[in-house]
Amino acid sequence: MGRRPRAEGEEGALAPTGVPAPGQDAPEPAADCALCPRLKAFRDENRIAYPDFFNAPVPSFGPEDARLLIVGLAPGLKGANRTGRPFTGDYAGDLLYGTLLELGFAEGQYEARADDGLRLVDCMITNAVRCVPPKNKPIGAEIKRCRAYLEARIAALPRLRIIMALGRIAHETTLTALGERRADHGFAHGARHALACGLVLVDSYHCSRYNTNTGRLTKPMFRAVLVAIRAELAGRDTGLVARR
Ligand code: SF4
Q1: Is the distance from the beta carbon of residue 152 to the nearest atom of ligand 1 less than 6 Å?
Q2: Which residues are within 8 A (CB) of 236 and not within 5 positions of it... i.e. 6 or more apart?
Q3: 14 lines ligand 1 (CB under 6 A)
Q4: Total of domains in the chain
Q5: What is the model's pLDDT at position 159?
Q6: Is residue 211 over pLDDT 90?
Q7: pLDDT at 28 over 70
Q8: Residue of 158, 82, 83, 96 whose CA lies nearest to 125
């Protein structure tokens, strides 16, 4: 695939300067990862305020032989940060998991909790930033630090073919993680980017309640992107708009 590790100090490098390197064999952060002081402090506050919540970096969910990786932004305070599974327990999860079930990327029943027995099929879900950020807004330094885990996550998926980016931040950090030039691949809902590394990047607006409430993203729009991804995995024409 040509996915290369980068040198320290290079944009998107595995080891942000001055902090321990997670390493390519550690695609999931430790529960006490403290690389982002602001997020660690928020996590500590939440452990007091919500002692029953997961309150740790939320690990990726799905099989290691997945050909599709879905990259979201970050855990929601009372969604994934509460349940410990990406997109589980908030509105975005209702739309995402409902669509994945409908299209055969998941089996079982989604009940908005981590122990509902739901299984992903040929699909893994992760977040660009693994810890819940205040007001759902990670800052640039946090996105950059956690990119080490995204890069390691991608490198640890031997059959990976397609990455679906939910929103512009996921799109941009994925490009950097893969060593692609952001200027060559603008974000657009429904865009398909054939990357130099051999992977395909497909964009969607984030399936957040805000985006659906404002009409930016509808259920049919979201479903259509995953239908196209299903077609691409089956070797059929996707109908997506190709973007360089
Ligand atoms: S966001 Fe990522 S890098 Fe930052 S503390 Fe959490 S797991 Fe560590």
Answers
A1: no
A2: none
A3: no
A4: 1
A5: 98
A6: yes
A7: yes
A8: 96
Closest atom of ligand 1 to 57 CA is: 7
**CATH number of the domain where residue 115 is located:** 3.40.470.10
- Residue 59 near ligand 1, beta carbon < 6 Å: no
| 142 belongs to a structural domain | yes
Determine whether the shortest distance from the Cβ of 29 to ligand 1 is under 6 A.
yes
3-state DSSP call for residue 138? Answer: coil
C-alpha 55 to ligand 1 mean position (Å): 12
Q: Considering the domain boundaries, does residue 6 fall inside one?
A: no
Q: Which CA distances in Å does 34 have to 20, 201, 233, 240?
A: 10, 30, 37, 40
**pLDDT-based confidence at 25, cuts 50/70/90?**
low
Asked if residue 142 has its Cβ within 6 Å of ligand 1, the reply is yes
Say which amino acid occupies 17: T
100 vs 70, 109, 137, 171, 210, CA distance in Å? 11, 11, 26, 20, 20
Query: Does residue 1 form part of some domain?
Result: no
Domain that holds residue 147: 58-243
Tell me: the pLDDT tens digits for 84-132? 999 999 999 999 999 999 999 999 999 999 999 999 999 999 999 999 9
Task: Indicate if ligand 1 lies below 6 Å from the C-beta of 74.
Answer: no
For residue 160, tell me if it sits in a domain.
Answer: yes
Q: Which helix (H) or strand (E) holds 145?
A: helix 140-155
- H or E, element range at 202: strand 200-204
The CA 4 to ligand 1 mean position distance, Å, reads 22
